[in-house]
Design goal:
- One of its GO terms (biological process) is positive regulation of transcription by RNA polymerase II.
- The protein has 217 residues and is mainly α.
- 59% of the residues lie in helices and 9% in strands.
- The chain is built from five helices and five strands; from the N terminus they run H-E-E-H-H-H-E-H-E-E.
- The strands form two sheets. Strands 3-4-5 form a three-stranded antiparallel sheet, with no helix packed on it.
- The protein is elongated and about 100 Å long.
- The termini are far apart.
Length: 217
């Protein structure tokens, strides 16, 4: 059989799955029969990851031993990348801290006229955004409180109507010749009321109260 790349993707994936299972089996047998320590890492053409490691060790120990024997540092390039990333993040952090201090009116000695004008413009734009947000919040809260007040007033009116329907009937005595009418005209007709019992209140019927015995002023 000629060893070359299988062009058909389906056949290539089937062959990879079969050969992978065979390699894993051989690695397990080699570990048991020869007491060997090995680590096997595979990536398919589609990026699927597979690995095998002897039960008596782990992948990191295998890599550490490989570095000791070969003298190759596997982590130097990764460590260098991490250091570069850390330095870049430190620079960004320092820049942001300096901008915060400048917006607080500090650390302005090294700035030129152009930089100061740019800082002033940025602060004006930020102030406009803050004011717009503040007015929006105030408007929203005002509308909410107006709705609550309207609902409370409507509830209050409904309760008053229910109370008037269930209890007494109040009326103004407008006869100026009577004692009630004279007192009402003297104090204002809206401040004197006479009380009349409802037919549904038999306890108040026939109790002997005169026209001036029970009043609300």
């Amino acid at each position: 059989i000629e060893i070359k790349k299988i062009e058909n993707p389906t056949n290539r994936q089937v062959t990879y799955s079969k050969r992978r299972a065979g390699i894993m089996k051989k690695a397990s047998e080699l570990t048991v029969l020869c007491d060997a320590q090995l680590s096997l890492v595979m990536f398919s053409s589609t990026g699927k990851f597979s690995e095998y490691c002897s039960p008596t060790t782990d992948t990191k120990n295998i890599y550490d031993r490989y570095q000791q024997v070969s003298g190759i540092n596997l982590w130097s390039s990764q460590y260098e990348k991490m250091q570069n990333t850390l330095n870049h993040l430190k620079e960004i952090n320092q820049t942001l801290r300096r901008e915060i201090r400048q917006r607080m009116g500090e650390d302005l000695d090294g700035l030129e006229i152009k930089e100061l004008r740019g800082l002033e413009q940025n602060m004006d734009e930020s102030l406009k955004l803050v004011r717009t947000r503040k007015y929006h919040v105030i408007s929203t809260q005002t509308d909410t409180y107006k709705k609550k007040l309207k609902n409370s007033q409507e509830t209050h009116r409904n309760l008053l109507r229910e109370l008037e329907a269930e209890h007494a009937v109040y009326y103004v005595d407008d006869d100026p010749n009577s004692y009630d009418g004279a007192l009402a005209l003297g104090n204002g007709p809206s401040y004197l009321y006479s009380f009349r019992s409802q037919p549904s209140q038999p306890n108040l019927q026939g109790m002997g109260y005169g026209p001036h015995d029970l009043r609300l002023a």
